[in-house]
């Protein structure tokens, strides 16, 4: 996948790739699609996925190796660095090749241990497939993407079943929250329901889940969706001031039944 970037964004990405690729453990570096947004877009971020076949250098060493930046912070487990370069947000996320291989093996087997990727989902595979390679030390990246393109029907069927079950769980909670007038649980249940309803449809279409920002746009382009899904989907997303929770629950039940019957 290739993304169109402004020249200053491409120049900045190249500077970080040059610094990070100097570490022997770096297998490849991919650019995330968020960099394709206009730099004034609130969703813009320069995000680099760095796949490692060895140990990650300590945070202090990484911070000193990066081009000039400010407001540096790293995640508690040390695999995500965040900072600013001028007014541009930058995130560098480090991922172990061994862990990716483990997840891919589970997916390709589609066996009794498939539940191990149920919670994390397929987004990790989406980033592998959709990231724009900026550095490759070997052919590992095209190799693993080629293997993931051969996922069996059993994988997609079972992952859909996982997500559909979770969708049903949130639908039940949604109804209960309305009866109890529990506004907090209502919001949690509503968001969980619509997320897993969409995730089930991505699995039905044999597509990896995008980022949450990509759900809305990409679910509209799926080839196989229930009749009237888009209209109900849009209605469910309307503010509560336009559509009361009780009505949204009725729409949610229609969405859920249509996905189960697909």
In N-to-C order, the SSE pattern is HEEHEEEHHEHHHHHH
The structural domain count equals: 2
Biggest beta sheet summary: 6 strands, mixed
Backbone CA Rg:
21 Å
CATH architecture of the largest domain: 2-Layer Sandwich
CATH homologous superfamily designation of the largest domain = Beta Polymerase, domain 2
Number of strands: 6
Q: Approximately how much beta-strand content do the residues carry?
A: 5-15%
- Report, as a whole number of angstroms, the end-to-end distance: 30 Å
User: Low-confidence stretches at least 5 residues in length (pLDDT < 50)?
Assistant: none
User: What is the average per-residue confidence, as pLDDT, rounded to a whole number?
Assistant: 94
- CATH level 1 class label of the largest domain: Alpha Beta
Secondary-structure-based class equals: alpha+beta
Neighbour order of strands in the largest sheet: 3-4-5-2-1-6
What is the overall silhouette? globular
Write the layout of secondary structure elements.
Layout (H helix, E strand, L loop, with lengths): L6 H14 L5 E6 L14 E7 L6 H7 L4 E5 L5 E6 L2 E9 H13 L13 H8 L1 E5 L3 H9 L4 H27 L3 H22 L7 H8 L9 H8 L8 H16 L2
Parallel strand pairs: 2-5
Antiparallel strand pairs: 1-2, 1-6, 3-4, 4-5
Helix pairs in contact: 6-7, 6-10, 7-10, 9-10
How does this model look, in words?
It is a single chain. It is built from ten helices and six strands. The protein has helices at about 5-20, 60-65, 95-110, 125-130, 140-150, 155-180, 185-205, 210-220, 230-235, 245-260, and strands at about 25-30, 45-50, 70-75, 80-85, 90-95, 130-135. It has a six-stranded mixed beta sheet with strand order 3-4-5-2-1-6, sandwiched between helices. Helix 7 (about 185-205) packs parallel to helix 10 (about 245-260). The mean pLDDT is about 95.
